[in-house]
Design brief:
Blueprint lengths: L7 H12 L2 E7 L8 E5 L3 E7 L6 H17 L6 H28 L1
Parallel strand pairs: 1-3
Antiparallel strand pairs: 2-3
């Protein structure tokens, strides 16, 4: 990634577009150490908690966010093969969208 600052609103907008839901991204230092992120969702919205004790970089955030969004998009809490495939495709898609906007922002300056 080009910039070390995490663009939270950009990630929220990307997640909302992908999931077609209102997304709330929450930061927590109270999740168990073995949990990077957690999600709860319904047909209209999703809340994703990011464990700030474990998640430090933009790449970490995108990885955790895409994992949780895969649950939302597939409407399941299962970590099965379908979830793994969706997670990987969303990680690539979110990274591409995030980086494209980074380059566009840098070009404006």
């Amino acid at each position: 990634m080009m910039n070390k600052t995490i663009k939270w609103l950009r990630l929220k907008r990307i997640a909302e577009k992908i999931s077609n839901r209102k997304i709330e991204i929450l930061a927590s230092t109270d999740l168990d150490a073995n949990i990077n992120a957690a999600v709860s969702f319904d047909e209209k919205s999703a809340s994703i908690a990011i464990n700030l004790a474990n998640i430090k970089s933009v790449n970490d955030v995108i990885n955790a966010l895409s994992h949780e969004l895969a649950h939302v998009v597939l409407e399941t809490n299962e970590d099965d093969n379908a979830h793994f495939k969706k997670w990987e495709s969303l990680r690539l898609k979110i990274t591409k969208c995030y980086e494209r906007r980074e380059r566009n922002s840098a070009n404006k300056n």
